[in-house]
Amino acid sequence: MSDFGKVAVLFGGSSAEREVSLNSGSRVLAALLCQGIDAHAFDPAEQPLAALKSYDRAFIALHGRHGEDGTIQGALELMHIPYTGSGVMASALGMDKFRTKLLWQAAGLPVPEYALLTADSDFADVEEELGLPIFVKPVHEGSSIGISKVVERDTLHLAYATAARFDPLVIAEKGVMGGEYTVGIVGSGVDMIALPTIKIEPATEFYDYEAKYNRDDTRYLCPCGLADAKDAEIRKGALEAFRIIGGRGWGRVDFLLDEEGNHYFLEVNTSPGMTDHSLVPMAARAAGMDYPTLVRRVLELAAND
């Protein structure tokens, strides 16, 4: 048996990403149990949070709102239960695509051009300013939920309406079309490391929910094909981007390349997926760390703010 005590694996939840979380959490639970760890399933949508007081540590495999936005982290703080991943502030920032961009811009990191949208926005003016294609997203959702790619003039308002079903705060981003990449991160403080970069090549129009979770024709390239110097620059930048929001434990930073090879940081995920299609386990495997080892390492890093 381990010295972790009684571990709650939090998964499921009530967000739009519930199904993904159920997939992630069941795999995490199995990986912990196979290593002799006293782990138990805990679904906050079906059990009162007060029941967590009987646990010694929590592995957060929740995605989306009330799971990676700082709220469950705050509850665990109040109960003095060490938990995996980032703390309250970093979790809240990472879930907010708009404020993450503001923070990165202030630190001098490159991000795609963007504009906030409301029902009263001059959509034609935003199309003109950003150019096509434009990606429209709910600010506080993950797993590509509510995202649209705008490729025709005078259709931005339709994409806004789709995203606004999930979040009153909607962001439009200039399409950066030279390639999509991601960098997984594991560790805290000076021991934080960037895992090998993965290039994502979806067979769909873009890396949407279907491409992420339900299709087998999305290509993941690791090695990613970038020149060594460029790859090293981006991985170093990913660590900086994660540290700037206050991230710890583990996470993932996504970025884009334009046609000239310039990179732009897109967003950060402070509670990455752990499904059989997920990117952090894939990158860890490329670095020589199998799935159970990764899960155990993340649990070892559990902390309180």
UniProtKB/TrEMBL annotation:
EC number: 6.3.2.4
Domain ATP-grasp: 101-300
A GO MF label: metal ion binding
Cofactor(s) this protein cannot do without: Mg(2+); Mn(2+)
InterPro entries referenced in this protein's UniProt entry, alphabetically: ATP-grasp (IPR011761), ATP_grasp_subdomain_1 (IPR013815), D-Ala_lig_Van_CS (IPR000291), D_ala_D_ala (IPR005905), Dala_Dala_lig_C (IPR011095), Dala_Dala_lig_N (IPR011127), PreATP-grasp_dom_sf (IPR016185)
Subcellular location: Cytoplasm
PROSITE patterns reported in the protein's UniProt record: ATP_GRASP, DALA_DALA_LIGASE_1, DALA_DALA_LIGASE_2
Entry keywords, A to Z: ATP-binding, Cell shape, Cell wall biogenesis/degradation, Cytoplasm, Ligase, Magnesium, Manganese, Metal-binding, Nucleotide-binding, Peptidoglycan synthesis
Reaction catalysis annotation: 2 D-alanine + ATP = D-alanyl-D-alanine + ADP + phosphate + H(+)
Binding site residues for Mg(2+) 2: E267, N269
Pathway(s) of this molecule: Cell wall biogenesis; peptidoglycan biosynthesis
A Gene Ontology term for the protein's cellular component: cytosol
Highest taxon in the source lineage: Bacteria
Encoding gene, per UniProt annotation: ddl
Task performed by this protein: Cell wall formation.
GO BP annotation list: cell wall organization; peptidoglycan biosynthetic process; regulation of cell shape
Protein name per its UniProtKB record: D-alanine--D-alanine ligase
Annotated active site: E17, S143, S278
One matching Pfam family: Dala_Dala_lig_C
Residues holding Mg(2+) 1: D254, E267
Note on how the cofactor is bound: Binds 2 magnesium or manganese ions per subunit.
Family: Belongs to the D-alanine--D-alanine ligase family.
